[in-house]
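Continuing the batch. This is chain 6 of the set; chains 1 through 5 are on the previous pages. Same settings as before, nothing changed between runs. Recording input and output for traceability.
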Amino acid sequence: MGTDETTGTTVTAATTEGLRAADRRLQAAQLAADAEGLEPLLDDRLVFTGPDGSQFGKGADLELQRSGRQRLTRLEEEELAVLVTGATGVSWFLGTVAGSLDGQEFAARVRYTRTWVHTADHGWRVIAAHCGAV
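Output for chain 6:
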């Protein structure tokens, strides 16, 4: 346990582990193409930047899952680091993803950087994310 120097908020293992658990729930929902499981983990203001620089929001992400246009067959975590400061968190995922997008097979080692916000009403939710090839 420590104190966040920016906010004076006490940061406990529970908040850090809560963020780590939220990221792993997000990973599981992505792998299962579970839009209903993914929805509460995404802030309505989400901006996701893909490896090609394209950006899209929560609605487009959920539709990608619901439509079946994207199907992951593998999502393997090598490393997951998290940082919590007040009601903001950042997670850094390193691992391998594989599957298909619009009928095209893919496999890549990637780094996701996700910025999360925490509220009493919703818990941890992703507000911004970026994925890049490693």
